[in-house]
Design goal:
Elements: E1 16-20, E2 26-30, H1 31-52, H2 56-88, H3 93-113, H4 122-150, H5 156-173, H6 181-190
Helix pairs in contact: 1-2, 1-4, 1-5, 2-3, 2-5, 2-6, 3-4, 3-6
Length: 195
């Protein structure tokens, strides 16, 4: 009689949700990590839309959205996720590297906030920022997040806190296209840009 190699379905752990990874595969992750990964996918989508945009005003709007999304994401990770991860994971240097990577991204964001699509290097800076963020996301999702899960960090309550803080920051910074939003986003990007 032939044997079949059936995999036993894993029972999802409480507080975990399905989310797409950087490579497009769906995985189950605790709420906090799933929330951060959803933000990663949203930013990737904005960079894709920028790459396909043809009109300068559309590109400028997308860069405003990218800068806001990245400013909010970096802030919530730095305030809420990284401190607990640094204390819990086996390689806390990963958190130091993440802070340095955020500082570099914030520097590019601050530069872009003072530019228009007509400026020299505008498109190049957006492309480099996108590539840099893709690298950062891959490291977070393959190394930092995995260690946080293995360390059994409390990630369910943290997921709700990340979401709430994200909403607060978006309300504080305002619509990315509004007049005062650019200066607020630039100020957030500049804060802590140099580690």
């Amino acid at each position: 009689m032939p044997t079949t190699n059936k995999r036993r379905a894993k029972t999802p752990s409480p507080g975990s949700v399905s989310v797409k990874r950087y490579d497009g595969k769906s995985v189950r992750r605790p709420e906090a990590i799933a929330f951060l990964m959803r933000q990663h996918r949203e930013v990737e989508g904005l960079f894709d839309r920028f790459e396909n945009a043809e009109q300068k005003d559309e590109k400028a709007e997308l860069v405003d959205e990218i800068c806001l999304a990245l400013a909010v994401h970096a802030k919530i990770e730095e305030e809420l996720f990284y401190p607990g991860a640094e204390a819990a994971i086996e390689d806390p240097d990963l958190v130091d590297e993440a802070f340095v990577e955020h500082a570099t991204a914030k520097d590019l964001i601050a530069q872009l906030e003072g530019m228009t699509p007509d400026d020299h290097f505008y498109e190049a800076k957006v492309k480099v920022l996108g590539e840099y963020i893709a690298h950062h996301v891959k490291e977070e999702e393959t190394e930092l997040f995995s260690q946080a899960i293995r360390a059994k960090m409390e990630l369910s309550d943290l997921g709700r806190a990340l979401e709430l803080r994200s909403q607060q920051l978006k309300a504080e910074l305002g619509d990315p296209g509004s007049k005062g939003a650019k200066s607020k986003i630039k100020a957030h990007a500049s804060a802590g840009a140099h580690v």
